[in-house]
Amino acid sequence: MGGSLPAALPIGKRALIIEDDPAWQQLLMEALEDLGLEADCAADVRAAIALLRERTYALAVVDVSLDPEDHRHRGGFQVLDALAAHEPPIPAIVLTGYATVEMAVEALTRHRAADFLRKEAFQRRAFMEVVARLLQQEPLSPGRSAAAPPVPRPRSAPRGSRVLVVEDDPGWQDLYQELLTELGLSCETAPSYAEALAWLERESFAMLIVDLQLASSMNPFGNRDGLRLLQVARRRGLPTIAVSATASVDEVEMAYQSLGVFAFFDKAAFNRRTFLQFVQQALSSRPTSQAPRPARGLSPEDQAALAALTPREREVLRWMAHGLTNREIAERLVVSPNTVKKQVDSILSKLGVHTRAAAVRKAILGGLLEDPTGDPGASLP
């Protein structure tokens, strides 16, 4: 990263490092000292609680796992709770290895961490910038989230504007609820494609936030029903932010180029403040007309290729759009997986593509998935 290091903070402020690895203790102490902070270290929960009783700290850096023999240890969460319950609350930066999305969500929501950083992606300058930002803020009140300074609400999004969050993970639902509340927005949540459509048919929303992989009775663990919702949002002219933990490059490009999403976030690298900024921008740029943005159409050659698909190949392609594997499609069509594989190969060959995602993209652009019944297995004329 370019630019100068953050300026030193006022002398006399202390930071607490809760970390069981001496090498990381030393690295963090040096970074904090460069900011003018004095640092104390604790290697376990008991030592950290004892130091909190003895001294006053402006900030803490906490490793979630405090057992060198077991990376699944979660003692750092107990420390985060003590920091949040302190009067006044002490902002905490989580810096940990073996991080998962679920761990990050739990730390940021339930345990009120101010920021979450992964050791695998640690950058000294970025860490120092986070520390400087947190310590230059006013102290947090007990009821306020420590995640990031509030972002001003957009003028075009009056307080109380509603957002539909389509997400099947309860932890992420809570995170979105917290973030949208910071903007003065209210939200409804739907865990599935079917429930999201029910909300859209009955209520008015300012925007959508959609996870590509949703709960589904057809394919609980691998579907991509969110792609169909992006298509619905495009037709209705609703600004949409897509989120996924497993999206391929093809799916990201399809979301931007073909389905008109405003922004796309990877859950593994989710940044709260950036997310808030994009929500603000999406609501501010929402057109007054509800007419959908024009989509990029298929070339005459692609249209002809799509029309050349047999009815069974179109049916297979629709199931592919739901993220089903060849074996899962075979079970629904009561044929062998080898038969489905041959049909998939034929689809890719006819459409002139090499990946399933690219084939689904052409199907979306060509309107193949816009069956009024919403049934992937519905026959086509």
From TrEMBL:
Domain Response regulatory: 14-134, 162-282
Residue ranges that the Swiss-Prot or TrEMBL entry lists as coiled coil: none
GO BP field: phosphorelay signal transduction system; regulation of DNA-templated transcription
UniProt keyword list: DNA-binding, Phosphoprotein, Transcription, Transcription regulation
InterPro entries the UniProt entry points to: CheY-like_superfamily, Sig_transdc_resp-reg_C-effctor, Sig_transdc_resp-reg_receiver, Tscrpt_reg_LuxR_C, WH-like_DNA-bd_sf
Protein's UniProt keywords contain GTP-binding: no
UniProt-recorded Gene Ontology molecular function terms: DNA binding
Gene name, Swiss-Prot/TrEMBL: degU_3
Pfam family membership, one: GerE
UniProt region (Disordered), positions on chain: 141-160
Protein origin, superkingdom: Bacteria
HTH luxR-type domain segment(s): 302-367
Protein name stated in the entry: Transcriptional regulatory protein DegU
Residues with 4-aspartylphosphate modification: D63, D211
Keyword rRNA-binding: no
